[in-house]
Specification:
Elements (H helix, E strand, L loop, with lengths): L2 H18 L12 E5 L3 E6 L2 H10 L1 H12 L4 E8 L2 E4 L25 H12 L8 E4 L6 H15 L5 E5 H14 L2 H9 L3 E5 L8 H16 L3 E6 L11 H7 L3 E4 L5 H14 L6 H10 L4 H18 L5 H16 L4 H12 L3 H5 L5 H17 L4 H7 L5 H17 L1 H16 L5
Parallel strand pairs: 2-3, 5-8, 5-9, 6-7, 7-8
Antiparallel strand pairs: 1-2, 3-4
The structure holds adenosine-5'-diphosphate and magnesium ion.
Adenosine-5'-diphosphate binds next to helix 5, helix 10 and helix 12.
């Protein structure tokens, strides 16, 4: 096979993977390169460690299936970090926090609501332990705390590749502490946390009412602080308002800078929607971005969810994104805010339409009158809910995730090639999102 042929096959694979799972597709998929392709095994290289982890965790199945569709046979897919000569797989990466590749400073939209938090995170990432220590971020859920903490780590990695960082949720910290007590390995627990250059702990409100963990945290804090190392914390409220947090911790958390993050303004929300769309390689008109920003106000995660819903609906229906489609999608989404679309909603609509029973869908029967509605349920659940493949399989008779993936692939293909299927999916999707009963 010539290099050119490999390139074109690979472009095809990426295109299919993108279409099969638009929510996980990213613009930087364009930068992926073939490192090796010998027919049975495909090594895909990207320059960033975080991207490799992201692909490995989220996209392996999608790429494997896309490669199989394009080549017509089974292909093993591996993601590799490639910088010049060296290539490493995820398994051989040095230990360290698994950073989300999207959560960088570049991808963070700055506005009046988060300017201080953002600026202080930048300052800290450039000079550990010398500017604001500790740095304490707080704000409601979905306003970007975790994003900023990951961005700090990306920043530290860039400026000082050798700095040792611990980034983890407070819950994880507490769990590891408990495990260390049970296993009698407190010594190694201490050396893991007390000697790092930066300790970054997310959601410290989790410490509430955990006396023993607070005690441990207190000593960890002191050790790091006294060594002039950096501490960064986040929580859903300011230190003094975290219920039953010991005074000595409250006072320490207030020693450095406490930065609040507020809900974003309308303009910031529009910019965030545009940024997220760009990141996913989606075209989005101003009208749609403004519409989404008007509909969703309090939580950026939901803003992103709205964007995902609109594009998932467009993919499911095979229609372009316009304002009307956005409205249809978000009417469902607004319903979603109070009542999430569940697999049960989908199963209801599908079983009524095909006049089959749920028990049939869950059974082992493989006649077409049963497999098609079963596969359609899986496909719609995949696109319209946030359930994992495993959960979807669980609802439909304990089927495993590869079965669900296969089903989604079959329906997606039929959707492309069969106008009847396309019309049917459109109708069923509308019924599910609008919560209408089928006559
Ligand atoms: P929190 O940890 O405060 O609950 P997250 O950091 O998980 O919130 O943010 C939720 C989602 O919103 C993430 O996908 C994140 O990328 C996004 N987000 C939050 N703030 C911004 C921002 N200012 N710019 C871009 N994306 C943002
Ligand atoms: Mg968070």
């Amino acid at each position: 096979m010539s290099a050119q042929e490999v390139e074109s096959i690979f472009a095809d694979i990426v295109e299919r993977a993108r279409a099969a799972d638009p929510t996980r597709a990213r613009k930087w998929f364009e930068d992926l390169r073939v490192i090796r392709f010998d027919g049975g095994s495909l090594g895909i290289g990207c320059p960033e460690e975080a991207s490799v982890r992201f692909l490995d965790q989220n996209c392996k199945g999608t790429f494997t299936r896309a490669a199989q569709q394009v080549t017509g046979h089974l292909v093993t897919v591996d993601f590799l970090i490639s910088n010049g000569q060296t290539q490493k797989t995820v398994e051989t990466l040095p230990p360290g926090p698994a950073l989300h590749p999207d959560y960088t400073f570049d991808n963070f939209v700055v506005g009046p609501s988060n300017r201080l938090a953002h600026a202080s995170c930048i300052a800290v990432s450039q000079a550990l332990g010398t500017t604001y220590n500790p740095l304490f971020l707080y704000g409601n859920a979905g306003l970007g705390k975790t994003h900023l903490l990951h961005a700090v780590c990306h920043g530290i990695r860039r400026t000082s590749g050798t700095a040792s960082i611990q980034l983890l949720s407070c819950e994880e910290f507490v769990n590891r502490f408990i495990r260390a007590i049970e296993q009698g390995s407190l010594g190694s627990f201490h050396s893991q946390f007390r000697t790092v250059d930066a300790l970054i702990i997310d959601d410290v409100q989790f410490l509430r009412e955990r006396e023993q963990s607070q005690e441990e945290f207190f000593h960890t804090f002191n050790a790091i602080y006294n060594n002039g190392r950096q501490i960064i914390l986040s929580a859903d409220s300011p230190p003094a308002e975290i219920p039953s947090l010991e005074d000595r911790l409250v006072s320490r958390f207030n020693w450095g800078l406490v930065a609040r993050i507020d809900p974003p303004s309308y303009e910031t929300r529009i910019a965030i929607v545009q940024k997220k769309a760009h990141l996913r390689g989606l075209e989005i008109g101003d009208e749609i971005a403004e519409y989404i920003a008007r509909q969703v106000q309090a939580n950026i995660r939901e803003l992103e969810g709205a964007l995902t819903t609109i594009y998932a609906l467009a993919t499911t229906l095979g229609e372009p994104v316009d304002l009307q489609l956005a409205q249809t999608a978000l009417e469902g989404q607004i319903k979603l805010a109070t009542k999430h679309i569940s697999i049960t909603d989908i199963i209801d609509v599908v079983t009524r339409h095909f006049d089959v029973r749920l028990a049939d869908l869950q059974s082992k029967r493989r006649s077409q009158s049963i497999t098609v509605p079963r596969q359609i349920c899986m496909y719609l659940a995949r696109n319209l809910t946030r359930h994992s493949l495993e959960e979807i399989g669980g609802h439909l008779g304990g089927r495993d995730h590869t079965t669900v993936m296969h089903a989604c692939g079959k329906i997606a293909e039929a959707q492309q090639s069969d106008p009847n299927m396309q019309a049917l999916l459109r109708e069923l999707t509308k019924r599910v999102t609008q919560g209408q009963q089928v006559a």
